[in-house]
Specification:
Elements (H helix, E strand, L loop, with lengths): L1 E5 L20 E2 L2 E2 L2 H9 L4 E6 L4 H8 L8 E6 L8 H5 L1 H4 L4 E5 L2 E4 L3 H10 L4 E7 L7 E5 L5 E6 L8 E9 L3 H6 L11 H10 L3 E5 L5 E4 L3 H18 L6 H7 L5 H10 L4 H18 L1
Parallel strand pairs: 1-4, 1-6, 4-5, 8-12
Antiparallel strand pairs: 2-3, 6-11, 7-13, 8-11, 9-10
Helix pairs in contact: 10-11
GO molecular function, one term: glucose-1-phosphate thymidylyltransferase activity
EC number: 2.7.7.24
Enzyme class: transferase
């Protein structure tokens, strides 16, 4: 499976912070925002990833992450000239996707919860069409809302409905089979000229090949697209990391956990940042990994 992170957009809701800097490069407590969606794809076992941004910020992402080889993955870069809808990422990434399945995630979404990696990998393994993830919210009128049957099959999706059929908001994480490129190519743009991801998902619903997994109690889904949401996300990460001593979206630790890099490689990465708390944490993670490997 290939992975795409849509990290474009103009970030207007976060001005003036995004006057010169991409939203996805803003700090969320102790790491850049892009680390959070990147960690999701890595937890799903995806190692071939395309980051789509605009031409002003692509080089910044490359300076931060390079080609991904340091953490045992491959990162390529694509450009979206202007925000033309989430589904356009599938067209920009068509050659990158090739004949593979694809996981598409939004660059300003954070997911965290127990057993999330196993849940993602199971969803990838059993993918037949489209797999979405729903999160219960108290104000579903503000979101795309999914209606499911008892087996988890998606029956309908409505965008910001006045009378929602459920309280399950469709999150910014989408898993698709290879048919999605052809589907996206045939989507009619909205009145604003955008290719809506909901229209892509509705095709799978009509084909009865769409499923929605509910992220319930114990999970966190955060859209970090406003000043308040950005602050709340940082406070969430700070609270859990300081209380539990385990870091969220530490991509080097995830690479070690997934077998993408060795404990020794993790230790070297930690040494490069040894003067920071992040580097010290990596050194501890590497030391634990070396002890396990020596058993």
């Amino acid at each position: 499976m290939k992975g795409i992170i849509l990290a474009g957009g103009s970030g207007t809701r976060l001005r003036p912070l995004t006057g010169t800097l991409s939203k996805q490069l803003l700090p969320v407590y102790d790491k850049p925002m892009i680390y959070y969606p990147l960690s999701v794809l890595m937890l799903a076992g995806v190692r071939d990833i395309l980051i789509i941004s605009d031409d002003r910020h692509t080089e910044m992402f490359h300076s931060l992450l390079g080609d991904g080889s340091r953490i045992g993955i491959h990162i390529a870069y694509g450009e979206q000239e202007k925000p033309n809808g989430i589904a356009e990422a599938l067209l920009i990434g068509a050659d990158f996707i090739g004949d593979d399945q694809v996981a598409l995630t939004l660059g300003d979404n954070m997911f965290h919860g127990p057993g999330f990696s196993s849940l993602l990998q199971e969803s990838v393994k059993n993918l037949d069409g489209c797999a979405l993830f729903g999160y219960p919210v108290k104000d579903p009128q503000r979101y795309g809302v999914g209606e499911v049957d008892d087996s988890g099959r998606l029956l309908s999706i409505e965008e910001k409905p006045e009378t929602p059929r459920s309280n399950l908001a469709v999150t910014g994480l989408y898993l698709y089979d290879n048919d999605v490129v052809d589907i996206a190519e045939n989507i009619v743009p909205s009145a604003r000229g955008e290719l809506e991801i909901t229209d892509v998902n509705k095709v799978y619903v009509e084909q009865k090949r769409a499923r929605l997994t509910q992220l319930g109690r114990g999970f966190a889904w955060l859209d970090m697209g406003t000043h308040d949401a950005l602050l709340q996300a940082g406070q969430y990460v700070q609270l859990l990391e300081q209380r539990q001593g385990e870091w969220i979206a530490c991509i080097e630790e995830i690479a070690l956990h997934m077998g993408f890099i060795s404990a020794e490689e993790c230790r070297r990465l930690g040494h490069e940042m040894a003067s920071s708390a992040y580097g010290s944490y990596l050194l501890d993670v590497a030391a634990r990994g070396m002890k396990v490997a020596a058993r």
